[in-house]
From TrEMBL:
Its main location: membrane. SUPFAM superfamilies: P-loop containing nucleoside triphosphate hydrolases. It comes from Pseudolactococcus reticulitermitis. Residues 2-217 form the ABC transporter domain. One of its GO terms (cellular component) is plasma membrane. The keyword Zinc-finger does not apply. It comes from the Bacteria. Part of the ABC transporter FtsEX involved in cellular division. Has ATPase activity. Essential for cell division and viability. Gene3D superfamilies: P-loop containing nucleotide triphosphate hydrolases (3.40.50.300). This is ABC transporter domain-containing protein. It is found in: Cell membrane. It is a peripheral membrane protein. It catalyses: ATP + H2O = ADP + phosphate + H(+). PANTHER family: CELL DIVISION ATP-BINDING PROTEIN FTSE, LIPOPROTEIN-RELEASING SYSTEM ATP-BINDING PROTEIN LOLD.
Length: 219
């Protein structure tokens, strides 16, 4: 379980606190949506739980251990995968190469790496044919799928994504949500999605809304 204890954050001035006394829990096997107005601090919250920023107040625990104690780099490398809004893929490489390099970086060893990668990509609709195309030649939805596979295969048990449906049409967006749902429910991962998309909020197991510097549980 990932949890925040009395978490508070501001950038330069405490007077501009974005949120404070945040006590949230994220459990394995569930999909979470984080909602809030533009500029409220959702992405900032995501960078804190992704160990890209450090709390100004309070702490973040993963399986009851403080992230500082686990080590921020170690936490990011072994427990967490981020699906960035711009997908963050290497566009001059193929889909296959993008996934393959992520596997190498994370240090995960697979016996039959080639089959593992092509099967993983196939499971989200990236056919063998698309697999070997340069990412720049894939559609937004296809790139998003590759980015999700890249996040999934590293063995991370927490998957976070910022506006994962932001650049997609409604139909493709729904397919992405279904994919994240599957990752949470079938693979038992913690999935945390920052979004403006009310479809995601409806489909998620728990929705937290950041409003007036405080997170509210929305049912
Ligand atoms: N690195 C930074 N340094 C200083 N201020 C920042 C920094 N990053 C973001 N901010 C400010 O913090 C506030 C919250 O930004 P954040 O991106 O977390 O909001 P958000 O809720 O994700 O917004 P959106 O929905 O528009 O993406 C904004 O006022 C933003 O200008």
């Amino acid at each position: 379980m990932l949890e925040t204890k009395n978490l508070g954050f501001w950038y330069q001035n405490q007077a501009d606190t974005l949120f404070k006394e945040v006590n949230l829990q994220f459990e394995a096997g569930k999909m979470y949506a984080i909602l809030g107005k533009s500029g409220s601090g959702k992405t900032t919250f995501l960078s804190l739980i992704s160990a890209l920023e450090s709390p100004k107040e309070g702490e973040i625990l993963y399986n009851t251990e403080n992230l500082d104690k686990i080590g921020l780099t170690r936490f990011r490398r072994h427990h967490l995968a981020i699906v960035f809004q711009a997908y963050n893929l290497l566009t001059y490489m193929t889909a296959y190469q993008n996934v393959s390099s992520a596997l190498d970086i994370s240090g995960v060893k697979k016996e039959n790496k080639r089959t593992f990668i092509t099967e993983s990509l196939k499971s989200v609709g990236i056919t063998e044919d698309l697999c070997h195309k340069k990412v720049a030649q894939l559609s937004g939805g296809q790139q998003q799928r590759v980015a999700i596979v890249r996040a999934m295969i590293t063995g991370a048990d927490i998957i976070v994504a910022d506006e994962p449906t932001g650049n997609l049409d409604a139909e493709t967006g729904r397919e992405m949500i279904a994919l994240f749902e599957k990752i949470a429910h079938e693979q038992g991962k913690i999935v945390i999605l920052v979004t403006h998309d009310s479809d995601i909020a409806k489909r998620s197991d728990v929705t937290y809304e950041l409003k007036d510097k405080v997170f509210h549980v929305r049912s």
